[in-house]
C-alpha cells in the first residue's frame, strides 16, 4: 500500500498537488476517508446494492463546494442537491434549452465517478436520463464528455464511472426533453480515487464512458454502423424470466445517441444466446432464456423478425457461419434440458428453416466440468471454414473438425498441446488467409475455477487435416491468467485482450485484471496496454468499432447485486495516438468501394493519401467471451495510378476464408494508422444467397434486378475511348474500367475530360489525353502517348462524332 501512495503523489498533476495533499491528509486520518466530515454528515448516503460501486472510490467531502445551476424552480435551489437530505431537491425550470449543473469542488481530486439521486417524491418526473459529464481543472479548459449516454428511467440512484483525472470543476448537462421538461437532483455525490493511473499514449487510452440504460451482456456491430447491445427481459437481471422479450439499447458512434427499447416482436428473451451474422447480413440470435426461439435482426432497417424455432432447445450454445452463408449451431445444455445431446443443426437464410445434422455429434466437444453436462457443451470456439467445415478449437481440450455436409460429421483434430479444458477462454482468427487462430486462457470449470495464462497459435489447413499447434508468447503464456476476458482483433492484426479474473467466479469482482494486453503475431509477444479503472469480468463484451477503437462494456446482470455495470468504455489503441496523446491523422477511404460485392472480386478505390496495407474484419457479435463472427483477412494493395492514391486489391475467392456477410475494410498508412472502415456486404456467387442478401426480408417476389457484377473480361487490356468526356463515351469508359481495362479518355474538351478521368480514377487505371480527332496529327500523338503510358493498345471505341480526315478509324 505504501508504494502505491508514493505513486499517487508523483502522479498527481501540478495543479492537483495541493488538493490531493489535503485530501490525502484527511484520507490518511481515517475518519474522513469517505469524506464524512463534521460539516458533511448527510442523513442520506449513496449505497451500492444493485450496481458495482466506483472502483476504489471515496466520497469527496462537500463542505468546500460551490454550485452553479442553469436555473432553479422557486423553492428548489441548487444547494438542495448537497444538503444531505434525500427529501429536498434542486429542480430546474422547464426551459427547452436543456440544463446544466456545475460543481466547483474547491480543490483538486482524482475524480472518477458521479452519483445522482433523483427527486424521490416525483416518480419519474424530473429524472435525468440523457446526460453528458465534463471535467476541468480550471473552469477554462473542459475535457469531455468523460461520460455520456442514458441512465435507466426508473427512480433510483444512478452513477457514471469514468477514468479518474485531476478535476476541480465538474459539469453535468442534459438536453431538452419534451417528456421531461425539468430535471432535478435530490443528492449529488462525487467520488475520487486516492491514486492516479499514469497515462502513456504509447499504451493506448481509455475514455469516454458510455452510460447505458441496461447492463449490456450481448452486443453486436451492425451493418448500419451502429451498435446493438442487450441484456435480458429486464435491464438488470435474467432470473425469473416471464419470457417473450428483451431490453435492448443502441448506440450511434457518429451522433453519440443512446436509445432504448423493448423487443417483444420475436417473443424471445435473448439472454445467453448464440449469435451469428448469416451470409445475407442478417443477425441470427438463437435460444438462451427462451431456448428454442430464433430472432433475426435486420440492422439496416432496425427490424426484428421471428424465424422458425430451432429443432433443439439451447442456451450458451455457440454458432458460426458456414462457407455457404448458413449458420451452424452446436451445444447449449445450459437451457432446455441437459439430458439430451445437443448435436448440431443448421439454419438456412434462404428458407429460414433449421435442419438437424445428426452425425455432427456434440459428444466430441464436451469438457469435464465439475458441474456436469449443463456446462460441458457451453460456449464452443467455432470457426466456419472451407467447404462447409467448422473447426472447433475449444474450450474442450479435444479439438475437432465438424462438417455440415449431408447428415454432418465430426473428426478429432488433436489437442492444444498440454492445454486443459479452457471454458470461458477466448479464441480468435486473426489471419484467415493463413488459417491462424489465437487461443487465450479460460478455466477447467465454468465457475469457481482458476484461470490459466495458456496461449496457443493454431494453424488450420484443409478441412479434416491435423492443425499445427504452437505456443503463443514467451513460454506459451499471456502476461496474466485470465478467464471471462474479452478479445478483439485489430485492423493491423494485433489482438487486444481486456479484463477477466484470475479465479473465475460469476458475479464476483475479486482477483480482477485492469491491465489489458496485446498480442503481436510478428514478434510473437504479449505486451501491456493502458490500465483502466472499471471492473470487466463475467458477462462483459468487447467489440471493434468501425473507427478502429474498441468498446469494452457490461458485466453483471444479476438483479440486486453489486456486479452490475450499466456502461461501457471506449479504448483507443496506440495506433491512433501520437506520443503526446493527440489523434494521429488517419488515411481516408474516399471512393470506389461498393456496398456489396462478391468473394474473389477485385476492388479499386481511392484514398486521401498513401497507404501500405488493408484488411477486412468481419462484423463481430459478442456474448460470454464468445465472438465466432469476428475474423481478419489481411489484404495486399497495389497502386494503380496516374492521379495518385488509387489502389487495387483482390479478395480471397474461398468463402470458407471470406465467410459471406458484413465486413469492414480498413486501410492503414505507412505508420499503421487505420482509416475509418467501409462496411461492405460480401456475398458468395450463389444465386440463392445473393437473392436472400438483396432481400433479407423476403419482400421481393420478382426476379431481383440488381446490377450484375461486371466480370474482369478486359483485365490488362488497353483501350482508347474518344468523346469520353460525357454521355455515351463516358458510360463506355466506366464499363471498360469496371471490366478491368486501362482506359485513355480522348476528348477535345480538356476540362471535362480531366474531370472524368479524376472521377473514374477509383475504378481503375485511367488517363485523359486532349485530342481533336479531326486532326490527323492529334490522333497519331494519341496513339503514341497511349502506348508510351500503358505499354500497349488493344482497341479503340471511336465514340466522338468525327473521324480524322473523314476516314474511319481502323482497329489497332
Ligand atoms: C420451413 O418450415 C416450415 C415449417 O416447418 C414449412 O412449412 C416450410 O415448408 C419449410 N420451408 C422450406 C423451404 O423447407
Ligand atoms: C442421413 O441419415 C438418414 C437417416 O439415418 C439416412 O437415411 C440417409 O441415408 C443419410 N444420408 C446420407 C447422405 O448419409
Ligand atoms: C431490488 O431491490 C429493490 C428494492 O428493494 C426491489 O424493488 C427490486 O424488485 C429488487 N430487484 C430484484 C431484481 O430483485
Ligand atoms: Cu451468463
Automatic annotation (TrEMBL):
* Pfam families per UniProt: adh_short (PF00106), F5_F8_type_C (PF00754), Glyoxal_oxid_N (PF07250), GO-like_E_set (PF09118), Kelch_1 (PF01344)
Please list the residue ranges annotated as the F5/8 type C domain.
48-193
InterPro entries reported in the protein's UniProt record: FA58C, Gal_Oxase/kelch_b-propeller, Gal_Oxidase_central_sf, Galactose-bd-like_sf, Glyoxal_oxidase_N, GO-like_E_set, Ig-like_fold, Ig_E-set
Tell me the keywords, alphabetical order. Signal
The signal peptide here is 1-19
What protein name applies here? Answer: F5/8 type C domain-containing protein
Species of origin: Penicillium vulpinum
Amino acid at each position: 500500500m505504501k508504494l502505491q501512495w508514493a505513486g499517487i503523489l508523483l502522479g498527481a498533476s501540478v495543479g492537483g498537488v495541493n488538493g490531493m495533499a489535503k485530501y490525502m491528509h484527511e484520507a490518511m486520518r481515517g475518519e474522513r476517508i469517505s469524506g464524512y466530515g463534521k460539516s458533511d454528515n448527510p442523513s442520506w448516503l449513496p449505497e451500492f446494492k444493485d450496481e458495482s460501486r466506483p472502483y476504489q472510490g471515496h466520497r469527496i467531502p462537500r463542505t468546500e463546494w460551490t454550485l452553479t445551476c442553469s436555473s432553479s424552480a422557486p423553492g428548489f435551489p441548487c444547494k438542495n442537491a448537497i444538503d444531505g437530505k434525500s427529501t429536498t431537491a434542486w429542480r430546474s425550470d422547464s426551459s427547452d434549452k436543456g440544463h446544466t449543473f456545475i460543481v466547483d469542488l474547491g480543490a483538486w481530486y482524482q475524480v472518477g465517478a458521479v452519483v445522482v439521486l433523483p427527486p424521490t417524491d416525483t416518480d419519474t418526473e424530473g429524472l435525468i436520463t440523457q446526460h453528458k459529464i465534463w471535467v476541468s481543472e480550471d473552469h477554462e479548459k473542459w475535457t469531455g464528455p468523460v461520460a455520456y449516454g442514458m441512465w435507466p428511467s426508473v427512480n433510483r440512484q444512478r452513477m457514471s464511472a469514468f477514468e479518474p483525472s485531476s478535476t476541480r470543476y465538474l459539469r453535468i448537462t442534459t438536453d431538452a426533453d419534451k417528456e421531461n421538461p425539468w430535471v432535478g437532483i435530490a443528492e449529488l455525490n462525487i467520488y475520487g480515487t486516492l491514486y492516479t493511473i499514469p497515462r502513456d499514449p504509447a499504451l493506448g487510452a481509455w475514455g469516454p464512458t458510455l452510460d447505458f440504460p441496461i447492463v449490456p451482456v450481448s452486443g453486436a456491430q451492425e451493418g448500419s454502423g451502429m451498435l446493438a447491445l442487450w441484456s435480458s427481459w429486464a435491464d438488470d437481471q435474467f432470473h425469473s424470466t416471464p419470457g417473450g422479450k428483451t431490453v435492448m439499447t443502441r448506440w450511434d458512434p457518429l451522433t453519440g445517441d443512446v436509445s432504448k427499447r423493448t423487443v417483444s416482436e420475436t417473443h424471445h428473451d435473448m439472454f445467453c444466446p448464440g449469435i451469428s451474422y448469416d451470409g445475407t447480413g442478417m443477425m441470427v440470435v438463437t435460444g438462451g432464456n427462451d431456448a428454442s426461439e430464433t430472432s433475426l435482426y435486420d440492422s439496416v432497417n432496425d427490424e426484428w423478425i421471428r424465424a422458425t424455432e430451432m429443432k433443439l432447445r439451447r442456451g450458451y450454445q455457440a454458432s458460426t457461419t458456414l462457407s455457404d452463408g448458413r449458420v451452424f449451431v452446436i451445444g447449449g445444455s445450459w437451457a432446455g434440458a441437459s439430458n439430451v445431446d445437443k448435436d448440431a443443426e443448421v439454419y438456412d437464410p434462404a428458407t429460414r428453416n433449421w435442419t438437424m445434422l445428426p452425425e455432427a455429434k456434440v459428444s466430441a466437444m464436451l469438457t469435464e466440468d465439475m458441474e456436469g453436462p449443463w456446462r460441458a457443451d457451453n460456449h464452443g470456439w467455432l470457426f466456419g471454414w472451407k467447404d462447409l467445415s467448422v473447426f472447433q478449437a475449444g474450450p474442450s481440450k479435444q479439438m475437432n473438425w465438424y462438417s455440415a455436409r449431408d447428415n454432418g460429421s465430426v473428426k478429432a483434430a488433436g489437442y492444444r498441446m498440454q492445454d486443459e479444458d479452457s471454458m470461458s477462454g477466448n479464441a480468435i482468427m486473426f489471419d484467415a488467409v493463413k488459417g491462424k487462430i489465437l487461443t487465450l486462457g479460460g478455466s477447467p470449470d465454468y465457475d469457481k475455477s482458476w484461470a490459466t495464462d495458456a496461449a496457443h497459435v493454431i494453424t488450420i489447413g484443409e478441412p479434416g487435416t491435423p492443425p499445427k499447434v504452437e505456443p503463443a508468447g514467451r513460454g506459451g503464456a499471456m502476461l496474466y491468467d485470465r478467464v471471462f476476458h474479452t478479445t478483439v482483433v485489430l485492423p493491423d492484426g494485433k489482438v487486444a485482450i481486456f479484463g477477466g479474473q484470475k479465479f473465475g467466479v460469476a458475479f464476483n469482482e475479486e482477483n480482477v485484471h485492469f491491465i489489458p494486453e496485446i498480442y503481436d503475431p510478428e514478434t510473437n509477444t504479449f505486451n501491456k496496454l493502458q490500465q483502466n479503472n472499471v471492473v470487466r469480468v463475467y458477462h462483459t463484451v468487447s467489440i471493434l468499432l468501425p473507427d478502429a477503437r474498441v468498446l469494452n462494456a457490461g458485466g453483471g446482470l444479476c438483479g440486486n447485486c453489486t456486479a452490475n455495470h450499466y456502461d461501457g468504455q471506449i479504448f483507443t489503441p496506440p495506433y491512433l495516438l501520437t506520443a503526446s496523446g493527440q489523434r494521429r491523422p488517419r488515411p481516408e477511404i474516399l471512393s470506389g468501394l461498393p456496398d456489396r460485392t462478391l468473394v474473389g472480386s477485385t476492388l479499386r478505390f481511392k484514398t486521401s493519401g498513401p497507404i501500405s496495407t488493408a484488411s477486412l474484419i468481419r462484423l463481430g457479435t459478442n456474448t460470454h467471451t464468445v465472438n465466432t463472427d469476428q475474423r481478419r483477412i489481411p489484404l495486399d494493395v497495389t497502386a494503380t495510378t496516374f492521379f495518385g492514391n488509387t489502389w487495387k486489391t483482390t479478395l480471397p475467392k474461398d468463402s470458407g476464408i471470406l465467410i459471406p456477410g458484413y465486413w469492414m475494410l480498413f486501410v492503414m498508412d505507412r505508420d499503421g494508422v487505420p482509416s475509418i472502415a467501409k462496411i461492405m456486404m460480401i456475398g458468395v456467387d450463389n444465386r440463392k444467397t445473393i437473392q436472400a442478401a438483396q432481400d433479407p426480408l423476403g419482400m421481393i417476389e420478382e426476379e431481383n434486378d440488381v446490377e450484375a457484377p461486371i466480370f474482369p473480361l478486359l483485365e490488362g487490356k488497353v483501350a482508347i475511348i474518344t468523346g469520353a468526356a460525357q454521355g455515351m463515351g463516358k458510360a463506355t469508359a466506366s464499363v471498360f474500367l469496371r471490366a478491368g481495362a486501362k482506359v485513355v479518355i480522348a476528348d477535345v474538351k480538356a476540362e471535362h475530360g480531366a474531370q472524368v478521368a479524376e472521377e473514374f480514377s477509383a475504378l481503375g487505371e485511367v488517363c485523359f489525353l486532349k485530342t481533336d480527332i479531326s486532326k490527323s496529327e492529334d490522333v497519331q500523338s494519341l496513339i503514341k502517348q497511349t502506348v508510351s503510358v500503358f505499354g500497349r493498345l488493344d482497341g479503340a471505341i471511336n465514340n466522338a462524332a468525327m473521324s480524322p480526315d473523314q476516314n474511319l478509324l481502323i482497329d489497332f
